[in-house]
Design goal:
about 350 residues; mainly beta; Methylamine Dehydrogenase, Chain H; six-stranded mixed beta sheet; 1 helix; about 5% helix; globular; binds 2-acetamido-2-deoxy-beta-D-glucopyranose; transmembrane; 6-blade_b-propeller_TolB-like; membrane
């Protein structure tokens, strides 16, 4: 059936993404129904939303809610009930907007990460269509007051798409540029500390760089891992020296079309994209790694976010389905990986 899904790479709109436009009409209805049905093996949160597109999703274990970022700008929360263990069911929740930053109107809210020791949310804002503006902001998780707003790029800086963010133990943030293929390091008070670049971040072939650096996670051993969407390259970057290394993928698996990433344990990360989920393991401190599992969720919804809730991996999907005027149904669903 894969061949019936025409993945067209749109040159311009990076994330709307990923520029993956599926020609839905070419997917037989039975296939779509099947994709939705396959979810029934996993735990699903459905939520009613006022937007068609959602990008990031992170579980907030203190306030028992998912925080989701809006492509139209803003952040919403989806409060969920108690954990139901392994009971397979669909829980319907409501999205509530917690803030829209008026100073960033017209931009999309992209990657987000909770900086727990400082009780704040780090959120990337970007001009997804024009690729002319990107910023990182921090917001207090209790009051939603903005702590800082740092401009990363503007109209004179060439094409950029600030995309995803990771945070280290000292509160430094690392923001990926999915267009310019670099990483901004922003200090705990919002000062831009450095811009990390490397020839390894650019690949041969125009299409290989359509969507560049994307998902990023900080590893407690002092480095971060970052994935390059189109090429599937995985990098290990030393947080202090900023040395960039390619993680050698062994075992034949690929990380092409990867998007968001989460650290599951010191040896394992989960990555979203196409397929919806992949699990990657390293046994040697991320010099080499292997794709050890995958999960095929509803492909027409496109998994862009990944987060851990109560020890389980949940994926956030970008495309909602139309419900009634100004309402869309979205899902955040548990991923159950099959061994590769
Ligand atoms: C994004 O926000 C910046 C800062 O306020 C603004 O200058 C820019 O015009 C916005 N971008 C769009 C596409 O509206």
């Amino acid at each position: 059936m894969e061949s019936k899904v025409h993945v067209i790479l749109s040159l311009k709109r990076n994330k709307l993404f990923m520029l993956l436009c599926f020609s839905i009409s070419a997917i037989p209805l039975g296939y779509v129904l099947h994709l939705e049905r396959s979810l029934s093996d996993t735990h699903v949160y459905e939520y009613v939303s006022h937007g068609w597109f959602r990008d990031g999703a992170k579980w907030d274990d203190v306030d028992r809610r998912f925080l989701v970022s809006y492509l139209e700008g803003g952040v919403g929360e989806i409060k969920v009930g108690d954990d139901h263990g392994d009971v397979v069911e669909v829980e319907v929740e409501e999205e509530r907007t917690v803030f829209r930053d008026p100073d960033l109107a017209g931009n999309s809210s992209m990657g987000l990460v909770i900086d727990r020791p400082r009780n704040r949310l780090l959120l990337v804002h970007a001009d997804v269509i024009g690729n002319r503006f990107g910023a990182l902001a921090a917001y207090d998780l209790s009051t939603w007051n903005r702590v800082f707003l740092t401009k990363l790029c503007g109209p004179g800086d060439g094409k950029s798409l600030a995309d995803d963010v990771a945070v280290d133990g000292d509160g430094n943030a690392y923001v990926t540029d999915a267009k310019g293929s670099k990483i901004w390091k922003v200090g705990v008070n919002g000062d831009v500390i450095s811009v990390i670049t490397s020839p390894l971040f650019t690949h041969k072939g125009w299409y290989e760089n359509l969507v560049a650096l994307n998902g990023i996670v900080y590893h407690p051993n002092g480095f971060f891992l970052v994935v390059h969407t189109m090429s599937g390259a995985l990098y290990k970057v030393d947080a202090k020296t900023e040395e960039v290394k390619l993680v050698k993928l062994v075992g034949g698996g690929s990380l092409r079309l990867s998007d968001g990433m989460v650290l599951v344990s010191e040896r394992v990360v989960a990555v979203t994209g196409v397929p919806s989920g992949r699990m990657v393991e390293s046994k040697d401190g991320w010099e080499t790694a292997e794709v050890v599992g995958s999960y095929r969720g509803p492909a027409h919804r496109l998994a862009t976010a990944v987060t851990i809730k109560d020890g389980k991996i949940y994926l956030g999907y970008m495309f909602g389905s139309y419900r009634f005027p100004k309402k869309w149904k979205h899902i955040i669903a548990q991923a159950v990986f099959q061994k590769n």
